[in-house]
Amino acid sequence: MSTPTLDRGVLLLAQDDELVIDRVVGAADETAGTPCTRATRFQIASISKQMTAAAVLLLAERGALGLDDPISRWLTRPPSAWSGITLHHLLSHTSGLGHWEDYPMIDLAGPADPDELLAVFAGLPPLFPVGQRWRYSSPGYVLLARAVERAAERPYATFLTEEVFAPLGMTGSFAGAAAGRDDVAVGHEGGRPVPTWDLDTVSMGTGDVWCTGADLLTWLDVPRRGRLLAPASVTLMTTPHTPTIRDGESYGYGWFLGPLAGRAAVHHSGDNGGYKAFAAWLPAQDRRLVVLSNQAEVDARLVDTTLAAG
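Now predict its structure.
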């Protein structure tokens, strides 16, 4: 059996504070012939949910919102079926809201009016009573981003830039559309460029962040070293609030908690059209892994084999 490799993107593996694998390969833009570099920014897709969770926790620390707040406090005229849903339920994917496949009428790559998008979410009844089980829901994190905007009284992307990325020194990171920015990787599928998703509305709070590999490695210091957040907030992020559908795995706030390569880990993957991402920290070994690719086809074995070999 062949050994999995990364053909396009960045692969970083750190042991303690030392990089043991530092690989940058392939084209950032196949059409222009621009190579990937250490300055290239990639969509991290659903790993963005960790930044949303951090934003909510920062505002909770300041008393601007509460984790037990009903989502109705932060939305205008939400449906009555959402009356029992709190920010905690959205953070832990226990709200009963569906995922993208439950809303086939939404074009992830097309423009969307924010209020019309929420109306689409509201048009589908919850899939189960709030708090009764786990169901991964990107729309739930879109609602969290809206709550952050209301509580912080500024645009969501601005809050991330000022309150999350800047304090951590993540100078290569931003949220939202990449138009007009340098060093951004073009998503590819089947070797060809694909349209980017609507990161300003449809993916806001759930898949809208761009990072360099080094920045995402720095981000892993939030759980690893307790940066940015108070200790109690870091604990909330990495507490197993509810089991997922996989054996031995739970979900915190923006993090999966479960084994990787046979070892306990906090981790998350990301999958936007034309991009794949993965970030993990293995506490017992103090090992951090970052995979960012602007190619849809990434060998699923890459994470386990890299962790096992590193």
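The longest helix spans residues 138-152.
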